[in-house]
Amino acid sequence: MEPDLASLVIIAAVAVLAPILADIPRRVRIAVVVMEILLGIIIGPQVLDLAGPDPFIDFLANLGLAALFFLAGSEIDLARIRGAPMRAAGIGWVASLVLGLAAAFALDAAGIISDPELVGIALATTALSVLVPMMRDAGISGTAFGTVVFAIGTFGEMGPIILMSIFLAAGQSSLTTALLLVAFTILIVLVAVVALQVHPQRVSRLINETMHASGQLAVRLCILLLVALVFLAVELEQDLILGAFAAGIILGFVTRDQPVLESLKPKLDAIAYGLLVPIFFVRSGMTFDLDGLLESPAAVAELPLFLALLLLVRGLPALFSRRVVPPGTVAPLGLLSAAALPLVVAITSIGVETGELASDTAASLVGAAMLSVLIFPVLAVGLLRRAPEEAVAPP
C-alpha cells in the first residue's frame, strides 16, 4: 500500500503552524501539544477531511509516542527529588491512584462509563513533559517549589506507565505478567550497569569527535538504545511506552552531569519535537472521536466532570507536599499537579485500539486533559505571582 504523502505534507504543515498559533495569545500560554491536537481535529476526517491516518502515518505516530516517553524518561532525576519531596510525591501519587480508581468505579457503578481501570489510571497522571518547559519559561524550574512539582510529575508519569503495562498484560496469568516484568526490569538494570561501566576509549573519542560532524555517534547510540528497548518490551509482551520510558531513564542516568549532555539533548529534542512527536499529537487529533463526543449528551457532560476529577484526584494530594513547599504555594502546586495531557492521550489511544476504552469516553478524557493544560497552569502562575517573592526565588 502506497503511503498517503499528501496527508503527510498537511501534517508537516500543521506541525509548523501549531507553535506559531500557540504564540499568538501573548498573555495566555497555550501548550503547543494542545494546538497540535486541535489542528489535527480540524484537518481530520470529521471536520475538513483534508488528511487521514494510514499505516505509514500510524508507524511514524508510534515512533513519536516512543520518542515522547524516551525524552520524558530522560528528564527523571531521582537525585534532585530525593528526600522529603520524593516521599511526599510518592504518598500523594498513591492517594491519587486510590481516588482515581474510586471515582472511576463509582462512575462505572452509576452506568456513566464502562472502563474504570483505564479511566482511573488516566486520572492519576501529570503532564511532566508539558510542565517542564512551562516552569522554565516562568522562571520557577530551579526553585524549591519547582523541585516539588518535578517530584510530583515524576510519579505522575512513572506510576501510570508501569500500571498501563501491567493492565495491558492482564490477559496473561498474573504469574506470567509478574515474571515478564521482573525479566524486563533485570535486563534494564543490566543495560544500565553495562552502559555505566563500559566506556571504550575509541568509542568515547568518537562520540566527542562526531558530536558536531556527520558521524553523530552519540545520537545513533541513543536511537539504538530506544529501538532496542522498545523491541525488548514488545517481545516480552509489555507496552512500547514502558520500553521507551526505560530507555530514557537509562540515558538520563548515564549522562547525568556529563559534558556530552549539553550538546546531545538539543539534538534529541530536535529529532523528537521537531519531527516525530508532532506527528503523534496531530494524528491523535485526526482520530479524535469528535462526532461521538458531540452526538452524545452523556459524553459532553463527562468532559467537565473529568476536568473536575483531574483537579480532585491530582490536585488534592498536593496537600501531602505542603510541608516541603514555601508558604502560600500549595494551591498553585495542586493546579500544576492536575495538568495532564500526553499520558492521557497515550492511554486513551492504546485503550481505544485494544478495545479496552470506549471512543466517546476517550474523547471526553482527552478534551478534559486539553482544558487542564490550558487552564490550570495559567491559574497556577497567576497565584505564584501573588506569592511572596522569596517563596519562589531560586535557592
Question: What do these coordinates show?
Answer:
This protein has 18 helices and no strands. The protein has 395 residues and is mainly alpha-helical. α2 runs parallel beside α13 (260-286). It is globular and about 65 Å long.
Helix percent band? over 70%
Main sheet attributes: strand count, strand direction, barrel closure: none
End-to-end gap: 57 Å
Per DSSP, what share of the residues sits in E-state strands of 2 or more residues?
under 5%
Note the main attributes of this structure.
395 residues; mainly alpha; Na+/H+ antiporter like fold
Short précis:
By secondary structure, this protein is mainly α. It is 74% helix and 0% strand.
Topology:
Elements: H1 5-22, H2 32-43, H3 55-74, H4 78-81, H5 84-109, H6 116-123, H7 128-138, H8 144-168, H9 174-197, H10 201-210, H11 217-235, H12 240-255, H13 260-286, H14 290-294, H15 297-315, H16 330-337, H17 342-354, H18 359-386
